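User: I've been trying to design a sequence by hand for this structure and keep getting stuck. Would you show me what you'd pick, starting by listing the structure so we're on the same page?

Assistant: Good idea, let's start from the same input. This is the structure you sent:
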C-alpha cells in the first residue's frame, strides 16, 4: 500500500474539505501521466498488443483537459493495472505506473504511485549493478518534469511517503 493511512488534506479537493485546487489536481494527473509514459515502452516491449496502460495514460490526460469523466479515467487505470497481473519485473511496474496515473483523477495522492512504479520499472530493467543509479536518474528526470505550481507539494509528498514507496525517492 503506497497511500498513507490518514489522507493528506493537500491531496483532497477543496469541494471535499481539503485544500487541493482543481487546477493543481489536473497538474498532478498530467505529471503522473508523464512519469508513466516515460517507462511505457517497458510494458509495450513485453506486450506489444497490450493497449490498456497506454489507454490509462490517455484517459489521465483527457480527464485533466475535461474531456472524460473521473469514472472513465479511474476505470482505465484499473484496467491498466489488470494488464500487469501475469507479468513480472519492469513490464509489470510500468503497467502499474500507467494504472496509478489513470486513478489520479479519483484520488490525487496516486500521483506518487505513478512516479514510484516508474522508478521501480527502470530499476528492474537495468542490469543489477546499475539498478540503483538508473532509479536515481529516473527520479531526477521526474523531478525535472514537475510543473512549478505543484513542485513543492510533490517533493514534500515524496519526503513524507518515501518509506512506504520503497525508498525510491532518494535521488
Amino acid at each position: 500500500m503506497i497511500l498513507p493511512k490518514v489522507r493528506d488534506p493537500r491531496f483532497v479537493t477543496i469541494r471535499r474539505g481539503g485544500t487541493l485546487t482543481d487546477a493543481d489536481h489536473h497538474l498532478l494527473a498530467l505529471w503522473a501521466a508523464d512519469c508513466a509514459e516515460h517507462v511505457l515502452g517497458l510494458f509495450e516491449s513485453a506486450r506489444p498488443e497490450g493497449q490498456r496502460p497506454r489507454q490509462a495514460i490517455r484517459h489521465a490526460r483527457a480527464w485533466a483537459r475535461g474531456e472524460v469523466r473521473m469514472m472513465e479515467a479511474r476505470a482505465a487505470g484499473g484496467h491498466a493495472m489488470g494488464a500487469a497481473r501475469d507479468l513480472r519485473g519492469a513490464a509489470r511496474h510500468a503497467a502499474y505506473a500507467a494504472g496509478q496515473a489513470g486513478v489520479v483523477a479519483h484520488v490525487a495522492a496516486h500521483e506518487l504511485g505513478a512516479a514510484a512504479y516508474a522508478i521501480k520499472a527502470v530499476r528492474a530493467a537495468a542490469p543489477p549493478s546499475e539498478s540503483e543509479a538508473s532509479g536515481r536518474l529516473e527520479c531526477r528526470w521526474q523531478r525535472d518534469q514537475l510543473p512549478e505550481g505543484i513542485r513543492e507539494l510533490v517533493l514534500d509528498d515524496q519526503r513524507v511517503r518515501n518509506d512506504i514507496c520503497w525508498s525510491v525517492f532518494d535521488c
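That's my pick for every position. To get oriented when you compare it with your attempt: DSSP finds seven helices and no strands in the chain. Residues 25 and 108 are 6 Å apart (CA to CA).
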